[in-house]
Give the backbone structure.
Amino acid sequence: MTPAETTHRSGSWRSLQAVLAGSLFSGATLTLGSSAVGSPLLLLGVPLVLGAGVLLMLWPAVAFMLTAFIIPIERLGRLTADDAMYTISLMRIVGTLALGSFLLHALIRRRAIAFGSAFWLYAAYFCLALLGVFHSSHQLGTVRACGAILGNLLFFWLVINIGQAPRLAKTAVALWLTSTVIVGVFTIITWHFGKGVSEADLGETASRFSTVMVDTSEWEALDSTARAAGPTSHAAVYAMNLILTLPFFLYFLKHQRGARWRVLIGGGLLVTLYNVFLTNTRAAILLAVAVLLLCGARGLYRFSAGGVVAACLAVAAMLPLAPEAVWHRVLDTSNYSLERSATLRIRFEYWAAGLQVAQDHWLAGIGVGNQQVIPLYIKGDAPEETTVHNEYIMTAMEVGLLGWGVFFGFVVLMYAAARRAAQLVPGRWPPSLLHADFFVAAQVAMLATAVYGLQVDVFHFPLKGWWLIAGISWALYRVLLEEKPIHNSERSA
């Protein structure tokens, strides 16, 4: 291409950007301005919203980083109630803009769009889930679940296309961690100075800024207890979102040389761990401890006698500060029994019922999101709608044996990609660009999610942090396969 052609092409691209920006600004101003008549504050905010929208459409990388930043916000960014058939949220709006921005740039610049075997594998699972709409006895739940699966597929597609640059991928993860800390600080403040709401009211738009739920699931032994749910719909969801970040906090803490940054990262880690504690979720607290130990075993930090002693002293110093609700539910060892824990008894009943449902519907399943079947298999009192509280049984119930294999084949493929990428990085990229520990952290996070699924239907959560990690691992793995090995001298440099 000649210099004149290059100049002409760049000039055409700038003209197209100006036309696109003007069109978006003019059209959206007319639409939103007409609806905002009578609301001066909303009308004043229209230019800012439109300017942000234009910015996101013009720079896909900025849109991608903003999408990563708002992942932990969840319920705070939802514009509809949690039980609505089609939920509208800030995450979906920004994610849609990011996807549209990428497709627009790919079309204009004739850039190849990545799909790959992982995308098509999860797309096949989406198709199997969609078939459940025709035979599900709970069509509202199935339609809602299919919408969530489609959202996961599109978000994964966005990540594997934009997250192919190592520095951009690290920045996106860092923004995700930053937002998690901000949300964690807000949750701590509302826990100590705010009021809790019931689990049923937590999903209502009026309770959007409530971060503490009052749990009555073990009223026989504990009456009611407070549990931090953060900006999510349940304490168990919030706990898993937090646990996913722990390996990456340790990764950045290990590879950050600046003292100030290390203090900030360490403070963020402590805020996150304290929030896990406030979720008052026994399985989550035990899993968080296991994740920290596994991170040490995988080299994300070094074990030392002094470090172990310091950690024990820190835990001992924090125990007297533990809220009373945490003492009653988590730290009282007598609650870890079938006699004292109603949730443990209920889970065994649900698992037995779920296995029977999976056996009766082994071919096509009962439809994703169908929560009205399990109560029919429970003897005695049961809620009208409930899940089986086990991801592996739940998936087998919903989509049958074939769908179970497709979905967990995708999950295993994501872990294998992270594992293989960790092996390829040292020979292809210098540590200053991206260290293999990044993919070790991804592996630990994925393993933690798989373990958490043994006692709750974890992949039915809006677990966008997991999808961000999986998408980045898959995207960078594919890039690494095409990279040429570097020599020792280049690696040292």
